[in-house]
Amino acid sequence: MAENNNQTIPAFSSLTPDCVMNALDSLGYRCDGRLLALNSYENRVYQVGIDDSLPLIAKFYRPERWVDAAILEEHGFMQELADHEIPVVPALAVDGNTLHRFEAFRFAVFPRHGGRAPEFEDRNTLEWMGRFLGRIHAIGALKPFAHRPKLDITSFGEEPLRFLLSHQMIPADLNSAYRSVAEQALAGVRGCFEHAGNHPVLRLHGDCHAGNVLWTDQGPHFVDFDDSRMGPAVQDLWMLLSGDRADMTRQLLDVLEGYQDFYEFDARQLHLIEALRTLRLIHYSAWLAQRWDELAFKHAFPWFNTQRYWQERILELREQIALMMEPPLQLL
Prior knowledge:
alpha+beta; Phosphorylase Kinase, domain 1; Transferase(Phosphotransferase), domain 1; five-stranded antiparallel β-sheet; 9 helices
């Protein structure tokens, strides 16, 4: 068992500032009263001021989303990477434990690490990213996760679509159109996976976009492995690409220039880029729908569940169907 997508409990209603600071106090960290909520919706993440020391980052996990063993695998993978001098920010251990409990919550504490967003339009930045992603994947391929799920068509496409259709999240007059285009899109995804063949899977970051990379003059630091899972290596590469086909080809070549110094890229996975993008689009809509009862989501995503939102999703999936029918990017 890994992720619970049918959560009904009020996830964070009792996570008050006092609760956050008392949780850290319970580990021996003396809070100075400064508390800053950071940008996170799936979990709750805070920068907490500490007496006579640097601030810490406290991450409170969404109740019932992951079993303890899955969270500990996330922590273990990050520590494994850090032990190999790969720039990640692992959880701090207190009395040998990285996962802690306070009242109804499970939480972890991390050192604060500053940085800016990476400039993916810069070729040197992409090559630098590629080198570290190659190193991450070389470690990720050494053994599988036992308790975290696999990124596949079922978990990222079929199950999210069933949730959307069964919970009546789509306006009635668009329901049939969305169902039809999503089913066509998933058929295209299956075709792409068939073309990719029996590709290897490994432990991934899983959500490697610019918001989860902190850049300094010393290069990138990778944070937030909350979505780490088993999957194809290209899942951690395609979110670095943007623009038209020529732009993405150049960017991918820049990434692979560094990546393949440390890990061999299986070119068959080029068939998966648009398929993985399509799965992410369907999964994202279902993720919003699953959390829609929470006020934080209603305030942050007021455009969700509107007529315009679903009209745009239908057009988006139609575009993906066309893109999946094109030949994959080519490595020149």
